[in-house]
Amino acid sequence: MKRPNVLKLSADNSTVVGVTNKNVTYISIPNCVKTIGPGVFQGCRNLKSVYIPDSVTKIGECAFEGCSALENIDIPSGVITIEPSVFKYCSALECVHIPDKVKVIASFAFIGCSSLKLIHIPNSVTSICNGAFMWCSSLESIDIPNSVIHIGEGAFNGCFRLKDIHIHSGTCLTNIPYQIFGNNTNIIIEK
Predict the structure, then answer these.
(1) Planar angle of CA 106, 90, 103, nearest 5 degrees
(2) The dihedral formed by the CA atoms of 38, 43, 44 and 46, expressed in degrees to the nearest 10
(3) Which of 29, 103, 108, 174 sits at a 20 to 30 Å CA gap from 129?
(4) What local confidence, expressed as pLDDT, does residue 58 receive?
């Protein structure tokens, strides 16, 4: 059965600029798309699954904000920056695959992803910005690769189940910023 097309594309078909139905449950983005525009799927509360092809190199700010039924996401291999608030309040999101080319996890990228249990930060990431994983209350452990040279304030604030932080040896991270873990006192940092 063919699914109706709910995507609005730019004139050259390279950018998703909107959706015609905010109640959609599944979206498959065509291979011609290179960019998912800012806020495109914002508030699609029934969206459970998205196929994003490797042709996509940019997912705009707040693109999936408030997609509270979204359970997992594979970020395409060409994406270099996970934009601000891109998965903000995706409260059902349990697993995210971040590809090896990503360098920056921007501010509040995963804020309020309260079901997020597993996140693999690849060795390409150099910056985890302010509040990037704030209120990811199901996150229990995290590995910070030695490529990370900056972690912003409150990056893991509100991650109340977070108990184990492993910072790889040889890291250039010299400063653990203010309120990186909020008031969580159960953290064990291994270096």
Answers:
(1) 25
(2) 150
(3) 29
(4) 97
pLDDT band at 99 (very low <50, low <70, confident <90, very high): very high
Number of structural domains found in the chain = 1
Q: Report the CATH number at residue 130.
A: 3.80.10.10
> What is the reported pTM?
0.91
Residue type, position 20, single letter: T
8 Å CB contact between 57 and 78: yes
Residue 15 lies in a domain: no
pLDDT at 120 over 50: yes
Burial class (CB in 10 A: 0-12, 13-18, 19+), 16: buried
Q: What is the pLDDT of residues 25-44, one digit of tens each?
A: 999 999 999 999 999 999 99
Question: 44: exposed, middle or buried (C-beta count within 10 Å: 0-12, 13-18, 19+)?
Answer: buried
Residue 110 lies in a domain: yes
Q: Is residue 182 part of a domain?
A: yes
175: in domain? yes
Q: Which residue has the higher pLDDT, 190 or 167?
A: 167
Q: Which domain holds residue 119?
A: 61-191
